[in-house]
Amino acid sequence: MILIPEKILQEGIEKVIRAYYLDYIGKVKDADLKDARDVTTGVTINVTQQGQITVDEIVEVTCPKDESDGLTGTYWLFDSVGKNYYVWYETDLAAIDPGVSGRKGIKVSVTTDATAVAVATATEAALTGLTNVTVGRAGAVLTLTLASPNTGLLTNTLIYDMFGDTQFDGYHYAKELIRILKNKFEGGKRRFKIYLGFNVNKQSFPCVNILIPNEEQDPKFLGNSGTFTEVPGDLWGEKRTHAYACVYDLLITSDSQNEVTVLYHFMKAAMLSAYEHFTEDGLERLFFSGRDITSDFELGPIDVYHKTVGVHFFYQNEVISIEKYPIITEVDAAGTPDPVPEDQSDFP
Fold it and tell me: How far apart are the C-alpha atoms of 68 and 70, rounded to whole Å?
């Protein structure tokens, strides 16, 4: 069977890209926080800083005073990395734990008619020591700093291992790649696609076009392998081998220069990370090059950007010659055999 390099490249690249996306999903995305919220207590909750990929969430919680045991049995909610909580109160009047499903309860005990400052002080003591939660207090107002769901998680991903916190003009490469991959696999409007040949749809960005600029004119070797294989019809066919050293281009195209830049560096690094995968599929001695492409403005729009990753490799095809030879299935002997001498002494 012959190799189809562009098919191997397309399918292999899709698998590698998905592997980076699934690694991110498994370590980061499912840990997204929900804002803290009141349920029954009458606390006032204000999110002063929204949590993001590497940004902690900061929440101000203004505690109420208790009036005639009205606080007992009430609760409010907040999330942290790997843990969801409910904070519930009990005054001198005994209360039943609300037992909110899927959350860990934190009990705060206060006296009947406790002041707002007293309630805040007791709440601060109950929350202090929680993992990924920092608590501060000013009077009746608590400040909760909730560690970003991605702090300590994003840094463990393959994407972060590749780009780290690299930025250019405030443009964060890891965040941009995450956005591109989420659009691809979660149905975004700008779905990153891989095409065989040049994509003529100017509205489909970003994309990678797999092109074949050169399969070497002077092959490394060409000829008979010296081995034969059985083919239908009781025939033998000799195997013919042809080896190529070639370059395939991955033309990265987008109307966003930033997308082109991050995908250019991602494609080179991601394919290198899957070197053994491509080698096992028959693309050997893999290495990469790259260059900018400037299109003719008369033929293409000015606000479309290109970079090319050159994928250099060696591969070989083996086919059976159409010159086939019959298989010897039996031998017929004709004539009279020489008699065996009675005296065997002449034979060694």
Answer: 6
In what side-by-side order are the strands of the sheet with 37-38? 37-38, 75-80, 83-90, 104-109
Which residue, 173, 134, 178, 155, is CA-closest to 21? Answer: 178
pLDDT tens sequence across 5-44: 999 999 999 999 999 999 988 777 545 556 677 777 788 8
Tell me the C-alpha distance between 8 and 13, whole Å: 8
Contact 243, 2 (CB under 8 A): no
DSSP letter (8 states) at residue 52? B
Q: Quick one: tokens of 118?
A: 């007293």
In angstroms, what CA-CA distances link 41 with 72, 80, 83, 133, 179? 9, 20, 21, 21, 38
As given in the structure block, the two tokens for residue 230 are: 């059985």
Query: What distance in Å separates the CA atoms of residue 110 and residue 89, rounded to the nearest whole number?
Result: 7
Contacts of residue 121, Cβ cutoff 8 Å, sequence gap at least 6: 137
* Continuous segment of H or E residues that includes residue 116: helix 116-127
What separation in angstroms does the CA of 20 have from each of 17, 151, 180, 219, 269? 5, 18, 12, 36, 11
Q: Nearest 10 degrees: CA dihedral of 97, 100, 105, 107?
A: -30
pLDDT digits (tens, 9 = 90+) for 304-338: 889 999 999 999 888 877 766 665 666 676 767 66
Pairing relationship of beta strands 83-90 and 75-80 according to DSSP bridges: antiparallel
Q: Pairing relation of β-strands 104-109 and 83-90?
A: parallel
Q: How confident is the model at residue 218, as a pLDDT?
A: 56
Residue 268: φ, ψ to 5° = -60, -45
Residue spans per domain, the chain: 5-24+154-325, 32-146
